[in-house]
Each structure stands twice: as structure tokens, then as C-alpha cells.
Amino acid sequence: MSNTFEKIYEVVKQIPRGKVATYGQVAALAGNPHWSQVVGYALHVNPDPNTIPCHRVVNRFGECSGSFAFGGKGAQQMLLEGEGVTFEGGRVDLAKYLWQIM
To answer: What is the reported pTM?
Structure first.
């Protein structure tokens, strides 16, 4: 499992400041589009939040985690807002902030 987590962490490290990715997007980029739940678990046990910006991963609707592992409810939104990401109705505008891989 650690090799899987390492792949996930390497993808998450690439998400630029002020952008977000979805769990499914990270899963696909890590090698398996069926790993969405695994991505969630890997981020929950993130060994280095200063290097692995798990707060930049949201669900497919642009919603933050209800129980963000590193700071509690509301912390993820606050971190994203600090990077310039805006929310409307509790959601990130994915058309504007979704990380686009070139």
C-alpha cells in the first residue's frame, strides 16, 4: 500500500497553489481511476502536510472534506481561501480552479 500512497502523494505535490484537484483526478493520475477512496485515506494519513498539500483535493462537486484531517471542519476551506480560491454555496468553482494538466 505504501507504494500506492507514494504515487498519490507525488501527484498531490504537483497541484499548484490556488488550484484544486478532485479525488478521482488524483486517482487517475496516480495510475488507477478506481482509487478515489484510497486517495481519501492516503490524504487522511498524510505524513507531511507541509510538503503534501492535501487541502487542495476536493470532491467531484468542488466540496471540501467535512472532517478535514489537519485542522478540523472549515480548515480546508480556510487554507484554500488563503491561496485565493473562492467558494460559492460551499463549493469551489471547478471550471475556474480545477488543476488542468497540460
So the answer is: 0.92
SS3 of 63, please?
Answer: strand
Q: Give which of 55, 67, 65 is closest to 18, Cα–Cα.
A: 55
CATH number at residue 24: 1.10.10.10
pLDDT of residue 101 exceeding 60: yes
Supply the range of the domain harboring residue 10.
2-97
Q: Would you call 54 a catalytic residue per the annotation?
A: yes
Domain-embedded: residue 10? yes
The Cα–Cα gap between 24 and 47 comes to 21
The active-site residue out of 54, 57, 64, 80 is: 54
